[in-house]
């Protein structure tokens, strides 16, 4: 019995000790911090509405903006205005009357080798067969052509034989007369730009690229403006880069309007629009610059014929001018024949008659086509295109 009581007492003591240890460990652990107090929330000030004052207005002196000292700072940035493109100044070309006479000195410097050579040969005391052969060679070298050369030599033979004694003055007069017959003085060389029954006159300019065709068209516009005509230009050479720009520049210099189309566009359409525009504007002349790729291209010739047909839906062409490079000699005659088969050439423009050009080409090309040389170009100047005057031309060939 005592043993049971002792066991119970020991159990109670052990349980009490364990309970004390648990309570002590709990007391040593820190308690978590109390939660923070909730902040006081105040309502934001009410925003002013339209028409409300932000605060009560106060009476105080007011200053104008001129009286307020502004803080210093960088200078204001100047805004650049786009440049004003000024229209090109319109030039007044010199009159064309007697222009070839004024340019005679330039022509004679490069051309009178023909005349001087012939005069030297004809001045020999005895004109044997060898001398006459030299005269023929001189004429052929100057691109006069075989048949015209033979005709000229034959006439010279007869007249020299009749003349007998020959002074330099007589020889010069003789040669001048025969050359004038060869060149032709009774041919109408007027550029037809004034049809009697309508307006405007229509001129088409054709030729191979490189002969100065577009430049000649621009210079011809100057010739017409100098003579008091109003002009519209048609840039129908749509296949050569910058051809339209070049022609337009020429036109702007003298106040001529240029009709142009898209690059590589239809040339016939541009030509048609140019004539239409010219009629609506009431101008005197429409000049049409056409494409000029190699004359051996069949496509070009067909295209040229199309341009002519389309333009003639408005009115007949008054002039078809063929531009030839005077330095090309016989090749120029080949070009002339091909173009003449496609369009009815009415006149010739010979360019580059300065420098190495040979004046005999005037005779040869007229014989080849049966149409007159109407204009000649003597240089790169804007007013170096002149109406062809046979007397002034021959005088330049044989010199004073």
Automatic annotation (TrEMBL):
User: Which Pfam families does the UniProt record give?
Assistant: SRP54, SRP54_N
Reaction(s) catalysed by this chain, per the record, are: GTP + H2O = GDP + phosphate + H(+)
Q: One biological-process term from Gene Ontology?
A: SRP-dependent cotranslational protein targeting to membrane
Its subcellular locations are: Cell membrane; Cytoplasm
Molecular-function annotations in GO: GTP binding; GTPase activity; signal recognition particle binding
Q: What class of enzyme is it?
A: hydrolase
Question: How does it sit in the bilayer?
Answer: Peripheral membrane protein
- List the EC numbers from the record: 3.6.5.4
Q: Give the residues the record marks as binding GTP.
A: 207-214, 289-293, 351-354
Its biological purpose: Involved in targeting and insertion of nascent membrane proteins into the cytoplasmic membrane. Acts as a receptor for the complex formed by the signal recognition particle (SRP) and the ribosome-nascent chain (RNC).
- What is annotated about its quaternary structure and interactions? Part of the signal recognition particle protein translocation system, which is composed of SRP and FtsY.
Name under which the protein is recorded: Signal recognition particle receptor FtsY
* Species per Swiss-Prot/TrEMBL record: Streptomyces actinomycinicus
């Amino acid at each position: 019995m005592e043993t049971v009581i002792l066991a119970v007492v020991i159990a109670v003591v052990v349980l009490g000790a364990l309970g004390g240890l648990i309570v002590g460990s709990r007391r040593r652990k820190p308690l978590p911090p109390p939660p923070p107090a909730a902040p006081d929330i105040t309502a934001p000030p009410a925003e002013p509405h339209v028409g409300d004052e932000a605060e009560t207005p106060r009476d105080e002196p007011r200053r104008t903006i001129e009286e307020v000292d502004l803080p210093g700072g960088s200078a204001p940035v100047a805004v650049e205005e786009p440049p004003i493109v000024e229209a090109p100044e319109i030039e007044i070309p010199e009159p064309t009357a007697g222009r070839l006479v004024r340019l005679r000195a330039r022509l004679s410097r490069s051309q009178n080798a023909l005349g001087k050579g012939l005069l030297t040969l004809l001045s020999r005391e005895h004109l044997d067969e060898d001398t006459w052969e030299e005269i023929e060679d001189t004429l052929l070298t100057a691109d006069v052509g075989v048949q015209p050369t033979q005709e000229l030599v034959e006439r010279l033979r007869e007249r020299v034989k009749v003349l007998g004694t020959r002074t330099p003055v007589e020889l010069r007069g003789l040669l001048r007369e025969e050359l004038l017959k060869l060149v032709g003085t009774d041919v109408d060389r007027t550029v037809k730009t004034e049809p009697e029954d309508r307006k405007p006159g229509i001129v088409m300019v054709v030729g191979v690229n490189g002969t100065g065709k577009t430049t000649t068209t621009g210079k011809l516009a100057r010739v017409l403006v100098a003579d008091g005509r109003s002009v519209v230009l048609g840039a129908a050479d749509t296949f050569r880069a910058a051809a339209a720009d070049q022609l337009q520049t020429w036109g702007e210099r003298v106040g001529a309007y240029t009709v142009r189309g898209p690059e590589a566009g239809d040339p016939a359409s541009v030509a048609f629009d140019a004539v239409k525009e010219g009629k609506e504007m009431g101008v005197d002349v429409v000049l049409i610059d056409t494409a000029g790729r190699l004359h051996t291209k069949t496509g070009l010739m067909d295209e040229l014929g199309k341009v002519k047909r389309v333009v003639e839906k408005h009115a007949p062409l008054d002039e078809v001018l063929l531009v030839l490079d005077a330095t090309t000699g016989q090749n120029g005659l080949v070009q002339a024949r091909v173009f003449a088969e496609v369009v009815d050439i009415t006149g010739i423009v010979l360019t580059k008659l300065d420098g190495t050009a040979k004046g005999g080409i005037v005779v040869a090309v007229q014989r080849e086509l049966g149409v007159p040389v109407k204009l000649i170009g003597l240089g790169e100047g804007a007013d170096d295109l002149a109406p062809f005057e046979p007397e002034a031309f021959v005088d330049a060939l044989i010199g004073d």
